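User: Predict structure, ligand BIS(adenosine)-5'-pentaphosphate.
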Amino acid sequence: MQPGHIILLGAPGVGKGTQAKVVAASTGLPHISTGDMLRASVAAGTEMGKRAKAVMESGALVDDELILGIVSERLSQDDAKNGVVFDGFPRTVVQAQGLDALVVERRGVGITHIFHIVLDDEEIVTRLAGRRVCEDCGAIYHVQYQPPRVDGRCDRCGGVLRQRKDDQPEVIRHRLTVYRTETAPLVAYYRSRPGYVEVDGSGDAAAVTNRILPFLR
Ligand code: AP5
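Assistant: Predicted complex:
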């Protein structure tokens, strides 16, 4: 596959993280989730984590400067030299412009695919309210759609499964509002670019993967 960055765009809960793991495995590119990076900083109690914690728990967005800083740092690492799979980034037009500037700095590694995953709000709320995440390895489950073999335990590593604080109903509603005002304008930003594809996010995870992978071959 030609070198390049892959963006998974879409509202909270459409399945970006679930699909990003498969796309990363299938392309060999590293999976970069700004949400996971921020949660790791919160768990480690770093300065960045302290700045981000309350913002994330409220469902608002962390400031663009901080996000562009962590992404720039991550892209400078050796494993990112052929491109990465972005999950949850960019999230604002300012971040998208920042990414374009970073891409110009790294000649030859452009944005090759933008998968915009689309799903209705009712299903999004069902998916987020039932999500459980392994606190050790980050594997994603759903109490109904993708249940673990042993209740509350990760199939892969045996870690404890937790509900994210921002997966409470009132925070989910706020995140959807923030998506509409701050992130949805990215669809207009990217729609006319080569590599932009709108993906139906309904059906099970394998069905969605089958709509994405043909574009990567
Ligand atoms: P982040 O962690 O990025 O959360 P998000 O974008 O809100 O997305 P989610 O992780 O909630 O959902 P997803 O689309 O990945 O769905 P998933 O695959 O898990 O961000 C969290 C916070 O961090 C933000 O609110 C913000 O504060 C901050 N932040 C992060 N990045 C930022 C940035 N760039 N700028 C500013 N702030 C930033 O699936 C959801 C559930 O559905 C799971 O249970 C899964 O098992 C299930 N599922 C998935 N696919 C299917 C399917 N096809 N069928 C049935 N179930 C499915």
